[in-house]
Amino acid sequence: MMFSVFLSKNLLKMELVETKEETKLLTKKQFEELQEKRWSPRTFKDEEISHDKILQIFDAGRKVPSSYNEQPWYFLLLSKDDENYQKLFGCMVEFNQSWAGNAHYLAVSFGKKYFSRDKSEKKPNRHYMHDVGAFMYGATLMATTMDLYIHQMAGFSPKKITEKFSIPSDYEPISMFVIGELGDGTDLTPELTEKESPYSPRKPLNDFLFSNEWKNPF
Ligand SMILES: Cc1cc2nc3c(=O)[nH]c(=O)nc-3n(C[C@H](O)[C@H](O)[C@H](O)COP(=O)(O)O)c2cc1C
């Protein structure tokens, strides 16, 4: 535990503030390597992942910040051995069905659209999707440390999921995703083999990081 001393405006006030201990667990280089390693493959080993590893992945997601610490994330995670797997599989668009079955696990993220802390009125949480997205990245990076890959999908019917799984109206399906170890490519069609690449281009910083006024590069 560390303590900081603060000076207030008129009086010298000692305040004890708990801060997190400074630990350097991951160097910049290691973090960059982890980010570099992550990508969204479509080839997967159709194999079980230990319960413990799955929990570690979701636990890492749980650590991300969220608006008012609402933690509006919820998930349905199914393996091919689950009774409802085919029901969930049928909610994806055809393109995603052509490869998502390569992995053993198929999941959906949900966001809760209203704050839980306001019991008196239903106050919309404008950042629920944002926070579910943050969760996904935390979870995805943890998966990467274990040589597991997460590929998210927007190509599915939220309506079908809501109906088939009787999802309460306060919750919205955000993305579907698969989890698994990287495959050897033999599970892909020739068209998908052509698309499969760990290197997807990124926009340069100047395209979106502005200073002083809109479009003025930082
Ligand atoms: C919210 C979200 C939705 C996506 N939807 C799909 C999808 O429906 N089908 C698909 O094949 N890939 C999908 N992707 C994967 C993206 O195309 C991919 O992340 C992007 O091209 C960058 O590539 P990378 O993840 O390999 O770096 C999605 C990714 C995200 C985050």
List keywords for this structure.
218 residues; alpha+beta; two-stranded antiparallel sheet; 7 helices
Topology:
Blueprint: H1 28-37, H2 51-61, E1 73-79, H3 85-89, H4 94-100, E2 105-112, H5 128-145, E3 148-153, H6 158-164, E4 171-181, H7 190-195, E5 210-211, E6 213-217
Helix pairs in contact: 2-5
Bound molecules: flavin mononucleotide (FMN).
Radius of gyration: 21 Å
> What structural class should be given to the helix and strand makeup?
alpha+beta
What's the overall average pLDDT, rounded? 92
CATH third-level topology of the domain at 43-189:
NADH Oxidase
Order of helices and strands: HHEHHEHEHEHEE
Number of strands: 6
Strand order of the largest sheet: 1-2-4-3
- Tell me the span between the first and last alpha carbons: 37 Å
Ligands: flavin mononucleotide
How many individual helices? 7
**pLDDT < 50 runs, ≥5 residues:** 1-13
In the CATH hierarchy, what is the class of the domain at 43-189? Answer: Alpha Beta
CATH superfamily of the domain at 43-189: NADH Oxidase
For the largest beta-sheet, the strand count, sense and barrel status come to: 4 strands, antiparallel
How would the global form be characterised? Answer: globular
What fraction of the residues are assigned to beta strands by DSSP? 15-25%
Description of the structure:
This protein is α+β, with helices and mostly antiparallel strands. The protein has a domain of 147 residues: 3-Layer(aba) Sandwich (NADH Oxidase). 29% of the residues lie in helices and 18% in strands. It is built from seven helices and six strands; from the N terminus they run ααβααβαβαβαββ. The protein has a four-stranded antiparallel sheet with strand order 1-2-4-3, sandwiched between helices. The N terminus is likely disordered. Flavin mononucleotide binds next to strand 3. The site of flavin mononucleotide (FMN) has 9 residues, from strand 3.
